[in-house]
Design a protein that fits this description.
321 residues, alpha+beta, Arc Repressor Mutant, subunit A, 2 domains, 9 strands, 40% helix, 14% strand, globular, disordered N terminus
């Protein structure tokens, strides 16, 4: 199934290549040869949400296409850690930290560190005032028309769902890292929870939707990122919505559940077996550095006992296998 068949919209490709800026912003940007990875000249102090239109113009010439792509991702997916930003488009975290610091000073991005009881948390990055103005300019709308607000950084920092959102985004940025470092792989679609809700909210509300391509295999999938906080009966109840979505679409798609550990996965697998909804599960821990890699042999269909499969291999299975 193609992404356009699933959504009714033209797919937006998110792969290892960078996304070109829209026509709305081309008229405002400096020629491609003038963009630099570091700001030139004096840097104006952070001024929040004042004078956005006037302040955006001199900043545009300092931004690379990677910067603009990052702003678009943050507008859609809300928050990324430094490591996740590195997965999106950098060779390592050190280079990512350097550039993120520059974008923070320019007021393109904002950041916070959530409170933890143990080790210091990494910076979490969100769209800043000029980043929001940039995304709005690309879309040809006003900043006020974005699904964004000035206090979002504070709301996210205090949100009880922050860990879920960061973990969910980490799943997809890990796929982007794999796509960037392995020829023949691409993440062709990455839909946020909010976009899924807009499309299918009356039927089912997955945490995310993606389309993964590896060589000649393309796998559309719906994602449930479980942190072990929901009762198993509630997890099983979600399959009713996925069955209804499959019936309305005319075909089922794989529903992927990730769990915080093997015990939670084993418990959940007992209630997730349903013939009309193909489900595969994976445990996110324990995994060695760099952490959970969703494209490798971590997936086990509920109708099978093993061995575990690569993400792309699920696309080659007959539904119900």
């Amino acid at each position: 199934m193609s992404a356009s068949e699933m959504s009714g919209q033209e797919p937006v490709r998110i792969a290892s290549s960078e996304v070109a800026p829209s026509g709305a912003i081309k008229a405002l940007t400096a020629p491609s040869g003038t963009a630099s990875t570091a700001p030139s000249g004096p840097i104006v102090g952070r001024r929040g949400w004042r004078d956005l239109d006037r302040r955006l113009l001199p900043v545009l010439g300092r931004l690379t296409e990677r910067d603009r792509h990052l702003c678009r991702l943050l507008e859609d997916h809300r928050v990324l850690t430094t490591a996740q930003v590195a997965d999106v488009g950098f060779t390592g975290e050190r280079r990512a930290r350097m550039r993120l610091g520059e974008l923070y000073v320019l007021d393109v991005l904002d950041r916070f560190r959530p409170r933890t009881g143990g080790n210091p948390a990494p910076f979490h990055w969100v769209l800043g005032p000029l980043g929001a103005a940039l995304v709005a300019a690309e879309a040809g709308i006003d900043v006020a028309d974005l699904d964004w607000r000035r206090g979002l950084v504070h709301d996210l920092a205090a949100s009880q769902r922050l860990a879920h959102l960061v973990g969910l985004n980490g799943f997809f940025t890990a796929l982007l890292r794999s796509a960037r470092t392995h020829p023949g792989r691409s993440l062709d679609e990455w839909w946020s929870e909010r976009r899924c809700a807009r499309e299918w909210g009356e039927v089912v509300r997955p945490d995310g939707y993606g389309v993964w391509t590896e060589c000649d295999t393309t796998l559309p999938f719906l994602l449930e990122h479980d942190n072990g906080t929901e009762r198993l009966a509630r997890l099983a109840g979600k399959l009713d919505g996925y069955a209804r979505l499959a019936a309305e679409a005319g075909h089922p798609n794989w529903v992927l559940f990730t769990f915080p550990g093997p015990r939670r996965e084993a418990d959940a697998r007992r209630v997730l077996a349903r013939p009309d909804v193909p489900v595969a599960t994976a445990a996110r821990s324990p995994h060695p550095a760099p952490g959970f890699s969703p494209d490798i042999e971590v997936w086990l269909p509920v109708a099978a006992r093993g061995p575990r499969l690569r993400l792309a291999q699920l696309g080659g299975l007959a539904i119900g296998t």
